[in-house]
Amino acid sequence: MPDKKETRKKITSLLENALASFKEELGEKKFAKRIEKAAKLISEGLEDDKSPKTEKAPKAEKLKKEKPAKAEKPAIAKVAAKKAAAPKAKAKAKVAKKAAAKKSAKAATK
């Protein structure tokens, strides 16, 4: 296989010919830079064949046991229910106070 520089030049010329219509849109400098980057990325893995690396055996992954979902404790469920009901109870108490205040205001005016 040819060396890196020759490979990149070949890829560059092929890309330039294939994408000639974009040269006018981008301008020569931008087009050339992008073609160079693309050629570099494409040729990146081609030259690695010179020194074959030995593949490492994949490590045996530890099998994780899935833990069953914990059931909510009754006390926690009660607390959660109280917290959820608390805003409703406060709102009801507020409305009741307003109604009582209106009644007492009416009674005081009579």
TrEMBL record:
Residue numbers spanned by region Disordered: 42-75
Compositionally biased intervals (Basic and acidic residues): 48-75
Protein's UniProt name: Histone H1/5
Originating organism: Chitinophaga horti
